[in-house]
Amino acid sequence: MALLITLTVFVAAVAIGAQFLKPLLGMDKVSDYPGPGTGSVTVTVAPGSGPKLVATNLQSQHVIADADSFVAAFTAAGGELSPGDFTFKTEMKNSDAVNVLLGKDSSKVMYFALSAGLRIGESLDAISKGSGIPLSELKALSDSPSQFGVPAPAKNLEGFLAPGEYRFPLGTSAKDILQKLVTATTDELKAQGVTDPTKQYQAITVASIVQAEGGQADYGNVAGAIYNRLKPGNTETNGLIQSDATVTYGLGTKTFHLTDAQKADKGNPYNTYANVGLPVGPIGSPGKTAIDAAAKPTANNYLYWVTINLDTKETKFSSTLAEHLKYVDQYNAWCAANAGRCV
């Protein structure tokens, strides 16, 4: 009897002790909520955020129960994080929260993606298709750019609609959507120290050319070469940028080949072969890297550049026309070896 009583007391002590130890050892930790959750929580995913950081933020706001199990669920889903504002409920299942981040909860958000380098018409079309907002409404807003705080010379929002993936709550107005994209661009300019409106417009215009003309690794050198061409007293290129991308923008086409007549046409305000200085405005939406390059170009002595491989974006730079023409020959050789690519 004494032994039985002792054993009973021991078992009870172990059980009670276990209840105290569970919180200390994390044994009482819930790994997932049953869902579906309640209320509404808006969480911002900043550019460059990793799944672990986002998961920790979600756990702190009681959206998910456990950051580690959420990261495992997110990884298993095989998706990629995109910056933006996302609307969750509190105490969601991991799988449901993952779907929100991956845009699979499409019935509750407006989603669209803009690639770097898109022209204004292409960007507005993508926004319209993803949001359901009429293209005519978006274009009317774009054609009145002053209300968005862009520099005065802008005729529309060309160059200021920041590339990226976007998700907005259903019912978000067209103006609010465009304002968010514009603000992302102007904030990046300010972050690079470009605060004067005139210089902002110049930087965006240069950045749009950089985006169109070079591979990402060469953006700094392309920007440096453009500014070198704009320097007073430059007798090599006489202030002409000579960018094919600007000419084709003015023509409303996309091609790698221009005729002599097209290059000589001064009536095209985007023709940087015939008109000295920058074109009258941006020729597309530059990404962050191109904007940063335009704001802080790489110091060099280059005046010429040519992408000699359209697959790898390998770009050759030179300070003289003679050297540049040798690289042009390499580009032509690549085109000859890759029929149909250089059209």
From TrEMBL:
<feature type="site" description="Important for catalytic activity">
    <location>
        <position position="213"/>
    </location>
</feature>
<comment type="similarity">
    <text>Belongs to the transglycosylase MltG family.</text>
</comment>
<dbReference type="Pfam" id="PF02618">
    <property type="entry name" value="YceG"/>
</dbReference>
<keyword id="KW-0472">Membrane</keyword>
<keyword id="KW-0456">Lyase</keyword>
<keyword id="KW-0961">Cell wall biogenesis/degradation</keyword>
<protein>
    <recommendedName>
        <fullName>Endolytic murein transglycosylase</fullName>
        <ecNumber>4.2.2.29</ecNumber>
    </recommendedName>
</protein>
<keyword id="KW-1003">Cell membrane</keyword>
<keyword id="KW-0812">Transmembrane</keyword>
<comment type="function">
    <text>Functions as a peptidoglycan terminase that cleaves nascent peptidoglycan strands endolytically to terminate their elongation.</text>
</comment>
<dbReference type="InterPro" id="IPR003770">
    <property type="entry name" value="MLTG-like"/>
</dbReference>
<keyword id="KW-1133">Transmembrane helix</keyword>
